Amino acid sequence: xxxxxxxxxxxxxxxxxxxxxxxxxxxxxxxxxxxxxxxxxxxxxxxxxxxxxxxxxxxxxxxxxxxxxxxxxxxxxxxxxxxxxxxxxxxxxxxxxxxxxxxxxxxxxxxxxxxxxxxxxxxxxxxxxxxxxxxxxxxxxxxxxxxxxxxxxxxxxxxxxxxxxxxxxxxxxxxxxxxxxxxxxxxxxxxxxxxxxxx
Length: 199
Fold this sequence. Notes:
The protein has helices at residues 32-42, 56-63, 80-89, 110-122, 147-153, 161-167, 186-198; strands spanning 3-9, 26-27, 30-31, 48-52, 69-72, 97-102, 128-132, 135-136, 140-143, 170-173. By secondary structure, it is an alpha/beta fold. It has one domain: Spore Coat Polysaccharide Biosynthesis Protein SpsA, Chain A, CATH 3.90.550.10. Strand 2 (26-27) and strand 3 form a beta hairpin. The protein is globular.
């Protein structure tokens, strides 16, 4: 099964009160965005599409040398759904499913991504999403048959949540708390640094 990936990296980082955009701060010597993109590439998704918006040129400079497709979302202020749609427009026809990742979740394990990919191959007509201790996390896999719903029925910051609520999903229990954790604030970032140092 050919699975592509869309990394949503267009947000304005408004809650991260620092001089740098949150995707540009370092974890283990690499920027958050580069860490997320490299991990996604290692998971054999083809293609890997990164949707940028706020600080687009600076974020692009961090990852331009990697084998990815970079898409600029000029409507990023209208919410995450606009980035998802930008990414979907760049997905080639041969791709049967897409993995939607958040750029500010750099520590999701390779094992988790591999596990979710295997479940998508096993259940090719179902949305696949991780659960950690009963809570739904990211990334989420959407087979192509759901692309029209994602284009036509989501808006603002809803992402694919409404589609999951209506259509249902195959939820996979994972032992990876990072499917629930992203970097929104300085405190989140400090917690990520602590977690990285403890690995």
